Amino acid sequence: MPQPDSHQQPIARGAPPGPRGRVRPWPLTGLLLAALGFWLFGTIAAEFHEHPGTWLDARFTRFGETVRDAGLAGVFAVLTWAGDTLVVVPLGLAAALLLAVRFRTWVPPVLVAIASAGIGVLVGVLKNGISRPRPNPAAAVVEETGFGFPSGHSAHSAAVYLLLAVVSALLLRDRSRRDPTRDRHAALWSVLVIGAVLVVLAVGLSRVVLGVHAATDVLAGWALGTSWCLVLASLWRWGRAVRSPGG
């Protein structure tokens, strides 16, 4: 009678699917980073109430005056438009629609619309609730009204531009996993993220240079916008993992 092959492994019926059934850790990491960002925002807000006019505000105010004296105010007056609602919303939706066509999914425009509307509500409520005045208007290059904390330009640009970069990067990564021949396209994620970060930094810096925001206004706006971006991106990926745990 022939003996069974000693190298042959029995097939276990009903075995778990292995790593394909696990939820990827990215959503949880994103939510933890978002919580850290919201905590940072709260810390900055509390610090302002306890010690108005921090050393950071004073130092960056002097920096803004130096830049204006060097004749660069016009450059930053143009850069600041990248964070204006009239630019962020149509530009963000246009980019999101291009992603929708490219990847055949309506996720990008839906997320951008939620990001833009949500951060607008958050900033409006916080501005009126905290009621922090803007810096001395006599030193401002452009005229702005309303309260200063947090910076709406900084928050809006961070929420929308960073979200677009993250969503693009994740969609490119998904495509490269399904089709290894597209690995070269996946390398674009670093360019997208770095480019978005540079735009967000330029917008925030322009608000200080133009004299319409204190540095802590901008930092709080960055923290708020980035956290909101991470919340939306993480919930999207979490929902995707739950619907298709093997993907």
Task: Please describe what this structure looks like.
- This protein is mainly α and 247 residues long.
- It has a single domain, classed as Vanadium-containing Chloroperoxidase, domain 1 (Up-down Bundle).
- The protein is 70% helix and 0% strand.
- The chain has 9 helices and no strands.
- The longest helix has 29 residues, at 215-243.
- The protein starts with 25 loop residues before the first helix and ends with a helix.
- Mean pLDDT is 81; it is low at 4-23.
Describe the structure in brief.
With 247 residues, this protein is mainly α. The chain contains nine helices and no strands. The chain has helices at residues 26-50, 55-69, 73-79, 85-103, 107-130, 152-178, 183-186, 188-209, 215-243.
What's the CATH C level?
Answer: Mainly Alpha
Which spans of ≥5 residues are poorly predicted at pLDDT below 50?
A: 4-23
Instruction: Tell me the structural class.
Output: mainly alpha
Please summarize the sheet with the most strands: none
Report the radius of gyration as a whole number of Å: 23 Å
Instruction: Give the termini distance in whole angstroms.
Output: 45 Å
Secondary structure tally, helices: 9
Shape: globular
**Share of residues in helices:** 55-70%
| Beta-strand content | under 5%
Total of domains: 1
Q: Please name the CATH topology.
A: Vanadium-containing Chloroperoxidase, domain 1
Give the overall pLDDT as a whole number.
Answer: 81
CATH architecture level-2 label: Up-down Bundle
Secondary-structure element pattern, one letter each: HHHHHHHHH
Total strand count, please?
A: 0
InterPro entries: PAP2/HPO, PAP2/HPO_sf
Pfam families: PAP2
Protein name: Phosphatase PAP2 family protein
Region (Disordered): 1-22
